[in-house]
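Extended Data, panel c. Modelled sequence:
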Amino acid sequence: MKKLLAVCLLFLSIPCFAQQGTGNQPTAASQPIVDGMPKSLAIPITPDKAVEMAVENNLSLQQIILTNEAKRRAGQTPWNVFIPTLEVSGTLGRLNKAPEGFTIPLPPMLGGPITTSGGYQWRLMGSLQLSLTLNIGTFTGMKQTIEEYNAGKITIEKAKLQLERDVRKAYYQLLLVKEQVALLQGSYENANRQVARENLKPQIDEAENGYRMLMASFAMFLGLSYDAEFELAPLPGNAEFIALEAQDLISRAASNKPEIEELRRNLAALKAQRTAVFYNLKTPSLILAYNMDPTFMGDPMKDNWFKTDSWQQSSGMFRITLAWRINGLIPFTREYQQYQAMNDAVKAMEKGMSQAVQGTEMEVYNIIMQLEKTRTTAEAQRMTVNLAERTLRLSETAYRNGLKTYLEVQNDELALRQARLGTLQQNYNYLMSLLDLEYAIGVPFGTLSGSNK
């Protein structure tokens, strides 16, 4: 019973990234009545179907996808750094004091004196400015954007693979717990004393409640309502034990494990960012700019705004500027320290990646050792099953000859079921370890486990 409770706790500890049911899933309360009896609407689910449902409905995965949406858009348009900055504005203003005119004292023979007005107190002005700053870092920044987009894609793929692995392992756990509950029920049926039966009843109730809780958690894991009814398809046959080449698998995991690939992509993005910072700080920039500032020369409160000859340029021009901010070349400046910090970040991530590779190699080695141990245990367990089958056959023969009671035959049958359950548990342990190994070496699930999908 302690083992059963441990399995239940293990299953419940799996991160349950689930959403509430959509409201249209069949539940016990919504089953149709046929001939006075509820008709089962249990949804048949295979491991592949469970994975498909979880990927489609998992809220955590959807959150990761939305988080990477900005990277996706940026990665698909890295060229937009060459689009000039455009700013358009218009101003209608009133001077606090009206401009005063002046008189030029020319003699009459020269047409004087000449008096000019001070202009209008209301002014109407427009402005259009285009600017584009080019630096070698602009091009490396494009590479950084693309690398961040690629890293985001790897993050999403890693989340999907983790989800698939957890769903398949949870599926195996449910099948195993179901068999354990059935074994407890069989023990209850075979109990020959009232006291023994009564002692088993609370254990059975607790195990059944635990199994129902696991079923509810798994349903929500798949995006179903917690009370949705579904039926798990049993796996065909026993696990197929395969020969494993440790060195080759360890090498593949060090290169292909999703976490390693994600780190590799993030490191590439960080290096591209460091390069962009280097060129932005230590090389000059070319600034292209153009501006227009049309000004209305009439009275904007009285005259027609749409007369083309009423607008004149004041200081509009096209400019080419070469600028170099030299702070990045001087030690102890903020800009110089910024680049040094980028160097430190790259070195730290490189160390972290080396550590992750070492951890992955040890992880794969331990998985392979666990697989070998499970294979050995499963083979010994199969010998126990063979012995239990032989004992049951002998007991049945003895019962027919009057040498054993029916209860003794039932006990031998229960022992056989226990032995078969032990074999089943080792099979599932082997399959779940294979799932961990397939994830670690970056191959599709089922590549090693074959038909046990």
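The first strand starts at residue 33 and ends at 34. This feature is highlighted in the accompanying rendering.
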